[in-house]
Design goal:
The complex is a heterodimer. Chain A is an all-alpha fold. Chain A is globular and about 50 Å long. Chain A contains 8 helices and 1 strand; from the N terminus they run ααβαααααα. The model of chain A is unreliable at 1-22 and 200-251 (pLDDT under 50). Chain B is α/β, with parallel strands linked by helices. Chain B is built from 2 helices and 6 strands, in the order E-H-E-E-E-E-H-E. Chain B has helices spanning 22-33, 74-86, and strands at residues 12-15, 36-37, 42-43, 50-56, 59-64, 93-99. In chain B, strand 4 (50-56) and strand 5 (59-64) form a beta hairpin. The longest helix of chain B is centred in the last third of the chain and has 13 residues, at 74-86. Residues 1-9 of chain B have low confidence and may be disordered. The chains are: A mainly alpha, B alpha/beta. At the A-B interface, helix 1, helix 2, strand 1, helix 4 and helix 6 of A face strand 1, helix 1, strand 3, strand 4 and helix 2 of B. Strand 1 of chain A pairs antiparallel with strand 6 of chain B.
């Protein structure tokens, strides 16, 4: 157990530690347009990939050149990879990080325009950026779920490197599948830590063996939601003001 | 200025200047506790994400973290905190500082 897992150790010096460590101002979004420029090509790639998929399963739709062959690159690189990289860039909050999903979006447009070689290079560059963003996150908080996300990004990068080298798509599939599976696994691992709304909290609820949870007991009638501890004035909210009062006290 | 903590995830509320009414700290706390993590559906205070609230006259500083640095919802949560605290009539500015230490763990959930 590290210090952060110990309630007592973690609690006492919390503010001093927060002050001493690097404080990040929350990033101010510059507006929707820069991100739309990334999201729209990714959305186009998704639609084109779906269309290509329908062609591949034999639907009688107007043919669209080499589009059926680009189903995988459009779906994995043009859409999913670009969106995952954008999500990671938003999380990290560095403006420079948005270059990488922009590379993926450019690659998506190149795929749609039929420039497969350029698309491979652009998307591979974007995936290298995703590896960098993921490693930065994993270094900030070393944890299994962050390592899993980084491994997923690395799997995508390896597959993309083989794509640039001219390997046929079917030989890249394991690497691209590795990207998707490890990314999903990492996010599931991360989300499995904190409880969901309605998860057991004081008072605790019994849980059936197959996972169903009893409904949360309601506060006594007339007490309202404040009957639960987290709706009360903060018990640990010790405000030392000029008069030595406590934040949240009701008198 | 001295302050105390009682448990992991507890919020330190501090008035930087003499003469800041305690009610203001209380009001800020009430606003912040209403901010929900959009993904988990729980209050960011209950989750233990809020470390420190500071009131300096009309300036409020909220120091908090996220459950993971890979969380893309930090801007959403930040805007929500700013909007809710900014609704208080005496508030002139709201700054939300995201810190990564101490690292959030599920043990901080209250």
């Amino acid at each position: 157990m590290d210090a952060g897992d110990d309630p007592v150790t973690a609690a006492a010096p919390v503010t001093e530690r927060a002050r001493a460590d690097r404080v990040e101002r929350a990033p101010r979004p510059a507006g929707p347009s820069p991100r739309l420029a990334i999201v729209l090509p990714a959305a186009l790639a998704l639609l084109a990939a779906l269309y290509a998929g329908l062609l591949r399963i034999g639907w009688a739709l107007p043919a669209a050149g080499a589009l059926p062959a680009e189903h995988g690159p459009l779906m994995v690189g043009g859409f999913l990879g670009t969106v995952v990289t954008l999500e990671r860039a938003v999380a990290l909050g560095r403006r420079s990080g948005f270059v990488y999903p922009a590379l993926g979006a450019a690659g998506a447009l190149a795929l749609l325009a039929g420039g497969g070689a350029w698309a491979a290079v652009l998307i591979t560059a974007g995936s290298a950026g995703l590896v960098g963003l993921s490693v930065a996150i994993a270094r900030r908080h070393p944890a299994l779920h962050h390592t899993t996300l980084a491994l997923g990004a690395a799997s995508w990068l390896v597959g993309n490197a083989f794509w640039v080298a001219g390997w046929p798509i079917y030989r890249l599939v394991p690497w691209w599948v590795g990207f998707l599976v490890l990314t999903i696994a990492g996010e599931r691992l991360e989300l499995s830590r904190p409880p969901r709304a309605g998860a057991p909290s004081p008072p605790s609820r019994p849980r059936c063996s197959w996972g169903w949870r009893w409904p949360r007991p309601r506060p006594p009638l007339g007490t309202g939601s404040r009957a639960w501890p987290w709706s009360r004035p903060p018990p640990g909210c010790s405000a030392t003001t000029s008069r030595g009062g406590r934040c949240g006290s009701r008198g | 200025m001295a302050h105390r903590h009682r448990e992991a995830g507890s919020v330190s509320c501090r008035a930087v200047r003499d003469g800041v009414p305690e009610a203001r700290l209380d009001e800020v706390y009430r606003r912040v506790i209403g901010v929900m993590d959009p993904e988990l559906g729980l209050s960011i205070v209950k989750l233990g994400l809020v470390y420190d609230l500071t009131v300096d006259g009309g300036d409020v500083v909220v120091t908090m973290t996220m459950t993971t640095p890979a969380c893309p919802l930090r801007e959403v949560v930040t805007r929500d905190v700013e909007a809710r605290v900014g609704q208080l009539p005496w508030v002139e500015s709201v700054a939300v500082h995201i810190v990564w230490e101490p690292r959030w763990t599920p043990a901080m959930i209250r």
